[in-house]
Amino acid sequence: MIKLKWGQEYKGFMTSVDSYMNIQLANAEEFVDGASTGVLGEVLIRYIPAPYSG
């Protein structure tokens, strides 16, 4: 699960990470305030200092 500083969370299969900490997820699902907003499929999250990833 990747949590952004704005509160969105993304859960999916991590397919790649580069040296800038950009993260690519497959089968990604977005959560806002703990509730799923839907499945997005493949997403790229550009590096923004995240308070939590795990």
TrEMBL record:
Keywords: mRNA processing, mRNA splicing, Nucleus, Ribonucleoprotein, RNA-binding, Spliceosome. Residues 1-54 form the Sm domain. Pfam families: LSM. GO terms for cellular component: catalytic step 2 spliceosome; pICln-Sm protein complex; U1 snRNP. It comes from the Eukaryota. One of its GO terms (molecular function) is RNA binding. It is found in: Nucleus. GO terms for biological process: mRNA splicing, via spliceosome. The keyword RNA-binding applies. Belongs to the snRNP Sm proteins family. SmF/LSm6 subfamily. This is Sm protein F.
